[in-house]
Write a structure and sequence with these properties.
The structure is a single chain. With 259 residues, the protein is α+β, with helices and mostly antiparallel strands. The protein has two domains: 98 residues, no CATH class; 159 residues, Lysozyme (Orthogonal Bundle), CATH 1.10.530. 32% of the residues lie in helices and 24% in strands. The protein has seven helices and ten strands. A four-stranded antiparallel β-sheet has the order 1-2-3-4, with helices on one face. A four-stranded antiparallel β-sheet has the order 5-6-7-8, sandwiched between helices. Helix 2 packs across helix 3, helix 2 crosses helix 5 and helix 6 packs antiparallel against helix 7. The protein is elongated, with a radius of gyration of 20 Å. The two termini are 27 Å apart.
Length: 259
Amino acid sequence: TGWENGPLGYPTTDEVCGLRNGGCYQTYQDGSIHWTSATGAHATHGAIGERWASQNWEQGPLGYPTSDEIATGTGSYQMFEGGAIIWTANGSRTEAITMNSSGLTPTQQDYLRQALPAAVAESQQYGVPVSVALGQSILESGWGGSTLSSRYNNYFGIKCSTSSPYQSGCINMGSGEYLHSSYQIISSSFRTYGSRTDSFLDHGYFLTHNSRYGGAFAHTDDPDRFIREVARAGYATDPNYTQKVINLMNAYNLYQYDI
């Protein structure tokens, strides 16, 4: 982080071990570094570090940090075992998002744990509600079980008719489409990605760089209205697409993750 010239300053303690799950930490003038064999070593400081401390550090619902602080165009965020803490520059607002595994199968818990940071990154960068990004990705990828998502990290079914800075290539695959009210399997060219996060960021890029979806961004504080506008603009051919996404957002209370 830049030694003593970085955001942490000089160390103020030696390394201290014996924390939960064999963890260790060291404190600095303006923050701390925590480590476990499972999560690695990550620094916390500033408003995000204060919020984590207020929730009882690694003993709280968030657990240990799993990333360093990541800057976005509107602030920054940091991922933890049990969720995320987001700091928004506009108004200097800090919010903790804790993953709720109640009612989820182990497969669904694993998907949500991995998808949540990607959805948070998309929301911070492009303004798409976290609940909508999660709901669409669950529907499009079958909780990450589709071939397109598991092999090629495409969680939204975005095609190669245009290009983006996030895609790594294209792949031809069969997909289900509604053509003239009839469900058919057709061959399409889909974008491929190097990571799950790239797919989520590309979803935000796709929506913000197509003017037809502009109306949705007047309703970022209303996820149901947001997805209705996206679907109305022609995102999917399924006539029931909007209701399917809203049903998922309701069934798993994805709204609780909105920033």
